[in-house]
Amino acid sequence: MAIEVRIPTILRNYTGGAKSVEGTGATLGELLADIDGRHPGLSERIADGSGLRRFVNVYLNDEDVRFLGGLETSVSDGDTVTVLPAVAGG
Amino acid sequence: MRYDSLLDSLGNTPLVGLPRLSPRPDVRLWAKLEDRNPTGSVKDRPAGFMIEQAEKDGLLTPGATILEPTSGNTGISLAMAAKLRGYRLVCVMPENTSEERRQILSMWSAEIISSPAAGGSNEAVRMAKEIAAANPGWVMLYQYGNEANARAHYETTGPELLADLPEITHFVAGLGTTGTLMGVGRYLRERVPDVAVVAAEPRYGELVYGLRNVDEGFVPELYDDSVLTTRFSVSSADALRRTRELLEAEGIFAGISTGCVLHAAMAMAAKAAAAGRRADVALIVADGGWKYLSTGAYSGTLEEAEGRLEGQLWA
Fold it and tell me: Are strands B196-203 and B230-235 parallel, antiparallel or unpaired?
């Protein structure tokens, strides 16, 4: 088993069009580094040196990782990570 | 209850228990019925406060034109208030919103400028900013950054909730402009130790996230994540399922965003029940289901309804 990472439309140019990719790691940061090995440049679009990018939201099993531990959030096999651009409502 | 006019009847909405959806006698869910506001949604509160503030500030003078990016409810609230107070309203609204919203806006004489479906409300905000720049005489209240939006909830929704439910442990609401969560959240945090403030955010179909690049994302200026305890992204399927469950179990006919909020509220209630802790979870029913009938959300199988909602802005 691995961790599924769902990729938004605007970042699928890094995944050859794939809607989701799989990876491994003990934390979100490790997971992003792992998938970046196969999809170079992807991780940098989600997080930079100072953490998650302002207009990107990342959810671990539907919960915003900013409230869980950011890039240090623990992840494990069977989890689903969803990456989405921030959008308005109202 | 007697009021001088429709606008004066804002707020003081009922808080009703959801005994059939509550997991245990000491873990209870409570729904604040915001559809019982003048135009049928929670947005009557911020709309009223934003107009009042703009009048105080001298921005709105008789005959003024108000411009606002909105996916619907804020526009509807503003349209009614603008009509009564003698303003013209121009709404910038994504084209993938329900037909009812357009009809209701037109009914109160609002003019609608459609923004492209792709990009959802982000695109409506961007267009409205351009239109505002080209029409300096118009007044954009700008619900995403207007302090009166959050203040409406700090001064009304929050106090009403605490008066009705002093034992509140969790507050759950939808995240759009973030006004409800910021206003009620701050009010409760100042008065209720350890209260959990939980955001439920709709997760739409891909079209809505069809931005050209990640930097076109949008975070409302009102948003302060330190007010929140956590934030959930709720799929259309889960939101629809919960909307129907609320109707079926408790008889409440709510809009689809309420299903989104209920999903997060039930997750919090289940967590408290599993941990053996008591909880009183208050959630916001932002509007009734009437405006969403044409989306087919309430008929056929869940799969059919989900398919029909694909690409629609339902909150």
Answer: parallel
Collect all residues of chain B within an 8 Å Cβ-Cβ radius of residue A66: 225, 231
Largest CA-CA distance found in chain B, in angstroms, rounded: 58
Determine, yes or no, domain membership for A53: yes
How many whole angstroms separate alpha carbon B72 and alpha carbon A49? Answer: 38
- Over residues A15-49, the pLDDT tens digits come to 999 999 999 999 999 999 999 999 999 999 999 98
Residues of chain B neighbouring A59 (CB-CB closer than 8 A): 232-233
Give dist(CA B195, CA B172) in Å, integer: 11
Q: What are the pLDDT digits (tens) for B286-313?
A: 999 999 999 899 999 999 999 888 878 8
**Model-level ipTM above the cut of 0.90:** yes
Residue A70: domain span: 3-85
- Specify the pTM: 0.95
CATH number at residue B60: 3.40.50.1100
In terms of residue numbers, what domain contains B106? 44-140
Q: What 3 state SS string does A28-72 have? A: HHHHHHHHHHHCCCHHHHHEECCEECCCEEEEECCEEHHHCCHHH
Chain A residues with beta carbon closer than 8 angstroms to that of B217 = 54-56, 85-87
Residues of B acting as catalytic residues = 43, 257
Which site among A59, A62, A65 would you substitute to test the B interface, given the most B Cβ atoms closer than 10 Å to its Cβ?
Answer: A62
Same domain, B257 and B231: yes
Residue A90 domain-assigned?
A: no
Residue from B177, B211, B214 whose CB has the most chain A CBs within 10 Å, to mutate = B214
CA–CA dist B164, B161 (Å, integer): 5
pLDDT in tens, B54-83: 999 999 999 999 999 998 899 999 999 999
pLDDT one-digit tens code per residue, B30-62: 999 999 999 999 999 999 999 999 999 999 999
Where among B106, B140, B174 does a domain terminate?
Answer: B140
